[in-house]
Specification:
By secondary structure, the protein is of the alpha/beta class. It has twelve helices and eight strands.
Length: 236
């Protein structure tokens, strides 16, 4: 039986939690972060704010320059942690194989759960709707045969949607995506690949291991090609 991994990410989590108490701010550019005069940074931004370039880890001063109408809220990490605990407990009712990787996202190994929860597509859509109905929060979900592809599928599903990658279609799904979509491809590696005229994941596979090894080293090249093919054996 092929593995099936579900990845759930709570969209703009800190802001989404704040909007539960401040529904009048829905649809507006909102961010949670520190004050500009205190050299604060943005912790979370609504999608309306992201249209202006406001992102997590951006200095608040810069965020306000990009979006003068930005509504800045102070964070309440105890409140966010409480919401996170309730949602993670909900995920563990689906399967005990849950790996929480941050306050707002987790992997679930749903291999063999069809008799309990139905087909993976049905489970993903049901869970998506339940998180909204039970907790009032938006989330994005990706389902694939491994953690790597499931997480990337979640990124492609954002905001507030579900993306399924059927087993066997991992490489085809990844091929048109930019190289930065892959784990381990940061700015430096992306720059090396761009110099090689490699800008998509599919072009990494086409380049071959020898050409990549000359620029990145043998081990890094092998890991990169494996990931570009959608191969990942890491467990939940």
């Amino acid at each position: 039986m092929p593995r099936l991994i579900l990845h759930l990410d709570l969209d703009a989590f800190f802001v989404s939690v704040e909007l539960l108490d401040r529904p009048e701010l829905r649809g507006k550019p909102v961010a949670v972060g520190g004050r500009a005069e205190a050299r604060g940074v943005i912790s979370s931004a609504s999608y309306e704010a992201r249209k202006f370039g406001v992102r997590s880890a951006l200095p608040t001063k810069r965020a306000l320059q990009l979006c003068p109408d930005l509504i800045l809220l102070a964070g309440d990490h105890a409140k966010y942690a409480a919401h996170s605990r309730r949602i993670m407990a909900r995920l563990r009712t689906i399967t005990p194989q849950v790996e929480q990787i941050s306050i707002d996202e987790a992997f679930l190994d749903i291999t063999g759960t069809e008799l309990l929860h139905g087909a993976p597509e049905a489970l993903a859509h049901k869970l998506h709707d339940q998180v909204r109905a039970e907790f009032g929060l938006p989330c994005s979900i990706g389902v694939a045969a491994n953690k790597l592809v499931a997480k990337i599928a979640t990124e492609q599903a954002k905001p507030d949607n579900v993306r399924i990658v059927p087993p066997g279609e991992e490489a085809a799904f990844l091929a048109p995506l930019p190289v930065r979509a892959l784990w381990g491809v940061g700015p430096k590696t992306a720059a090396v690949l761009k110099a090689m005229r490699i800008e998509t994941v599919g072009q990494i596979v086409s380049a071959g291991s020898e050409a990549l090894a000359r620029q990145l080293g043998r081990r890094a090249a092998e890991d990169l090609i494996r990931h570009a093919k959608g191969i990942d054996t890491s467990p939940v």
